[in-house]
Write a structure and sequence with these properties.
- The chain is of the alpha/beta class and 226 residues long.
- It contains 6 helices and 8 strands.
- 28% of the residues are buried.
Length: 226
Amino acid sequence: MNTLKRLSRLDRIIIQPPVYAPFFKAIKENQRELVKNPLKLINGKYEMDFEDLTEKVQSSQAKMLILCSPHNPVGRVWSRSELERLSQICIEHDLIVVSDEIHADLVLTPHKHVPFTMIAPELEDRTIVCMAPSKTFNMAGLATSFIMIPNQELREKFNSYMEKAHLTMINPFSLTAADAAYRYGDDWLDQVLDYIKCNVEYLTDYIQRRISQLSVVVPEGTYLAW
């Protein structure tokens, strides 16, 4: 498949701003070209602009899209139908997808996170999924994360880069903490989600009543407010 062609300098990578600021930096510092597919704010809710994305992919011949799901900072939890439409574009135009799903556990009812690779079997071959316990369990200081790459060739390329950069050593304390959090943290997480939902309601109400110059995009997930 064409997806596994080596990325090279000046390859173009798409992001969907307003989005996590380090995405911009990572692309530029790796000598790639940045292509923006801005989200659209419609009736107080951000949505993907699929028409603009299709045009940008065709005009730039981009090789990769970085998906933020749930989205940081606008708090969208993308619906299955949105992800299905996105997946069609990615498959049709042979895009590698880096799916940042670090906030996947922090989803507020009634919304549900849909892992990108579950949308269509073909996506496993072209998707790199980034996850970590840091957001879910407040463990950012332990600097532990994990990457899921079903495609063997992509996985070997990723591992090769990590080995060359000497980034393969695991902190045993962080690994133990992550294992404990995922095994025994369900009750704690349920309480955190209730707490976050109350904070969202409080913040939204406060701004509407006391700071009328601002408006809040009510988040469907994450602990962020935009």
